[in-house]
Amino acid sequence: MLWLADLPTYKDQNLDSLNEAVHHGTSLLVVKSRFIDSSLEKLLGAKFKQAYTATDPLRITQKHFITRRLTEGGMGTPKTDWDFSSRFWIEPLGAQVLIHQAGHPVVTENQVEDTASAIWLGVPETSLLRDSSYWKEIFFRSLIWSLGYLIQPDIDYSHAIEIEIDDWGTADKGFLSYWHYLEPGEETLRSFLIAPLEKHRAVAAANVISGYVDRQSRRIVSPWGKIFTDAWGQHQDYASTRKGLLDAVAAGVLEIESHGWIHMDPDLDSPPGPWWTADLKGEASADGWYSEFADHRRGTEVAAIVQLFHMEQGFEAIEKDFDQRPLELRPGNGGWSKSQFNNSGRLAAQAGFGIFHAEPDYYYYLDPHLVLDMTGISPQFTTSFDRLDALQSELRPQHPDGPVMVLFHDRDIALRSGFVEDLLDTLPAGYKTISANNYVGILHAQVVSSTTDTEWQLTFDYENPYCTFFEKHPSSWRLWLSDPIREELQRLPSLRLTTDNDSKTSMQSADLSRQPLVISIPMGRNKHAWKLTVAN
Ligand SMILES: [Zn+2]
Predict the structure, then answer these.
(1) Average pLDDT of the residues in 507-519
(2) Where are the beta strands (DSSP E) in 380-465?
(3) How far apart are CA 193 and CA 189, in angstroms?
(4) Distance, CA 429 to ligand 1 centroid (Å)?
């Protein structure tokens, strides 16, 4: 249980149930809170005194699981000189102090029951749990200590990059003077998308538009039948583009995701339209028309029901045209509606997407119950054929918790055929691509722990619709154990490890000493059982 509340949000609440939960084995982690409540004080074994400011360094007082890697790993302490922010001074009344600042407790731990503890983190800002490696380590180890074990994806996110290519199928490239180019066809895609991705063992996502705004018929039609000569005399062949995209999917280097349905304002008829007949040198070229989930031209939101219709049209067309289930929605022009009622993220969850990624700063985890803002987890930026010089500096921000997301357009391949090769060559050493569906699958995998007298089972459930990636790919996870759980397992005479009821191996206590333990799960979109059994 993670407690981030401070007064007055809970002053009239009855916290007895909290007390009960901890005494029944649920640990409590209290962050940046004065915990002014007798139940919380009793659980934490401490009491808030008053505010203080000090610039003394933080010091570790004793050996403990939570602080072990701070000392052993030689991690530097955060800079405190010139930090005059006010902090919480608390008095320990039974809790052990793990870190202090000139006598003021900064991290405390109180063992309430054998299997439940209450930890207080006096972090100055909650965001430091994400952004400071020092606080992140304390938070991470506190979670392991509280839960007894913790499962993490076995991915080095700090060297992972997710590549997305926008605008496949849009109509505007055939008529907008400032966004005009030849939609890359099958041959171009074979040589300049598939080949470089294969060579670098890389994957990318194509964000596809399935509704082509046809100014001649004033209708929205499928782009994939459009073969014509545009106003600049270029022979556009969208059927060939679709073939190229399908080839890339078949080669295992591309996933198809949704860029919306039409990449245009849903209302193309009202003033200052109709857009259909407006002059392409004037009104029809105006930027706001090209955003689909917020009406940038008229400065309003788009009604929820209209957005949902567009999202579902795009979703269903991708299933029909590419035989793929898109898991990501990236709204065109980064336009999205933010009010509670019209919130595009919530609607995208309803339409079945697993992630919503609007440029430049928004990215949301989605499922039927939750739309979770993950902004700030990792950097994201748009690159292009004439902006590659900036790539190294754009990749510089640390991102240990999520892949960096980089975007470009089909336009970059059209205007510089070697662009994908150049981009992959420019990536710093050690960087690997992670596919959008792989990332979504990791975020949506359900891990459930269950025990009997002689067994401990972790179930990795990939049956939900967001975990399609694991149908044809194995996966691996890191298992961290707290000292008491590890010692308990090591005291057992011998353990047998099974994964999905086969590959029986015996497990030595030395194996458990290695932290983390890597769990390998075979491919298959089902429930996988990783099980430790006491061998007789
Ligand atoms: Zn776009």
Answers:
(1) 84
(2) 380-382, 404-409, 432-433, 446-451, 455-461
(3) 5
(4) 30
Task: Render pLDDT for 474-509 as a digit per residue (tens, 0 to 9).
Answer: 999 999 999 999 999 988 888 889 999 776 677 777
CA of residue 389 to ligand 1 center, whole Å? 22
**Quick one: tokens of 130?**
């994400």
CA proximity to 288, closest of 306, 309, 307, 302: 302
Report CA(287)–ligand 1 centroid distance (Å).
12
Q: For the chain, where do the domains classified as CATH 3.40.50.880 start and end? A: 2-147
CA distance linking residue 179 with residue 164, whole number of Å: 19
Cα of 375 from ligand 1 centre, angstroms:
20
C-alpha pair distances (Å), 278 with each of 154, 172, 221, 289: 53, 14, 19, 11
Distance 23 CA to ligand 1 centre (A): 53
Q: List, by residue range, all CATH 3.20.20 domains of the chain.
A: 160-197+205-379+390-418
> What CATH number is given for 160-197+205-379+390-418 in this structure?
3.20.20
How far, in Å, is the centroid of ligand 1 from the Cα of 406?
14
CA of 340 to the centre of ligand 1 (A): 24
**Domain 2-147 fold:** Rossmann fold (3.40.50)
Q: What is the pLDDT of residues 94-113, one digit of tens each?
A: 999 999 999 999 999 999 99
Check pLDDT > 90 for residue 7: no
Residue 403 confidence (pLDDT) above 70: yes
CATH of 445-534, one of 3.40.1350, 3.20.20, 2.60.40, 2.60.120: 2.60.40
CA of 473 to the centre of ligand 1 (A): 30
Tell how far the Cα of 29 is from the centroid of ligand 1, in angstroms. Answer: 43
